[in-house]
Amino acid sequence: MSFSELFDSEFKQRNKGHFSAIVRVALADGVVYPEEKAFLDKLASRLEITESEYEEILSDPLKYPINPPYSYVQRLERLYDLTRMVHVDHHLEDKQEVLLKKISVALGFTPSNVDYIIAKALSLVDQKVDGDTFIYEMQHMHK
Prior knowledge:
The protein is an all-alpha fold. It contains seven helices and no strands. It has helices at residues 3-27, 34-46, 51-59, 72-87, 94-106, 114-126, 131-139. α1 (3-27) runs antiparallel to α5 (94-106). The relative contact order is 0.13.
């Protein structure tokens, strides 16, 4: 296996882990609503998840581990995706919020601050900010 193939393989595994975390959030209330399905379809395309991988992850999202990103900006990008997923139907279920907090800790956010981080993330997504604004506001929320 060449170096580039190894890199591509690792990149694909991280994308599958990220996608499976979002699927877990979507399935937390037991139903994938049409808005959630549309978001999953778009995200799968963006993350280069094939149709067969998509179906496999939907059937068993726990198969893939949550791989925390290395940089803070990457964590915020993933948090943005996750927050949009739970907010897509504009009704946050208790299970979704608990799962969002757990996944946020798994992504590398500090457990003692996760409630504040999630509240801020949900507020920004509620305001329909774009990804760049989300990242900027999250980076500067203490200033």
